[in-house]
Amino acid sequence: MTANAGISLAGKKVLVTGGTRGIGRGVVLALARAGADVLTCYRNESEHVGTLERELKAIGGDHHVVRADVGSPEEIDRLIGECRTRLGRLDVVVNNAGVISHVPFADLPVEEWHRVVDTNLTAAYLVTQKALPLFGESASVVNVGSRVATVGIPLRAHYTAAKAGLAGLCRSLAKELGPRGIRVNVVAPGVIATEAELSPEVLARYRQMTAVRRLGRTEEIANTVLFLASDLAGYITGETVNVDGGI
Length: 247
Ligand code: NDP
Fold this sequence. Notes:
Elements lengths: L12 E4 L5 H12 L3 E6 L4 H13 L4 E4 L5 H15 L2 E6 L14 H22 L3 E10 L3 H4 L5 H21 L4 E8 L10 H10 L8 H12 L10 E4 L4
Parallel strand pairs: 1-2, 1-4, 2-3, 4-5, 5-6, 6-7
Helix pairs in contact: 1-2, 1-8, 3-4, 4-6
The structure holds NADPH dihydro-nicotinamide-adenine-dinucleotide phosphate.
Protein name: Short-chain dehydrogenase
Organism: Streptosporangium pseudovulgare
Family: Belongs to the short-chain dehydrogenases/reductases (SDR) family.
């Protein structure tokens, strides 16, 4: 398989939220290698920003890495303004930015509920809504959900509720925006190997839960996003695609 899975996004203008690390970074690189011009955002300054900028420069194209916290409606307005100024229009939006925390439900503070729901769900609603004027005759929205949205998991009720909400948002938007040529889908990763620190015991348990006995790779999520973003998936909308190694 080639670096861009043999799929071309040449000339497409793309926004990926949360693209400096983990799955988002994999998505940004895959879409850039497929020929898209990509604008991505992050929340905190870190060495990941410069690293991604260098990687994008090596690929070539008109790419931009900007700071914008998608947990804030004002910052989302600014982010979409950056897309308008720097890219001119949008063909693809990938709502990837997400946060998670592990809290017993009985102790879950309302502030933490809002932080997780705002970043994982409300941001996807606002980014997609505010991107609408930048879409042309066709567009693809891909939301990064989670496999736990359908199976549930202890200590993550807020996260699970937000990700399940993302799937419902996707199904309704697919029907409402389909006549305008806008497709909306969800990619639901299982357990993906990122920099997140997990103990060897937890990793072994996660591996054992999968049919293929390994964690997923960020490129495997990115390739699925790339496919759904592309015209090859032109008849797929309102779907959730599980990429979970057969959990
Ligand atoms: P990481 O924590 O590794 O990276 C998250 C990225 O999103 C970073 O670039 C981060 O930027 C950015 N980000 C987080 N919050 C915001 C915000 N408020 N505004 C702007 N950018 C933000 O996450 P993963 O790669 O693990 O996860 C990516 C997506 O995949 C998430 O939606 C997650 O829920 C989902 N997912 C992940 C799984 C996994 O196993 N990793 C499994 C299932 C779903 P910064 O560096 O500035 O913080």
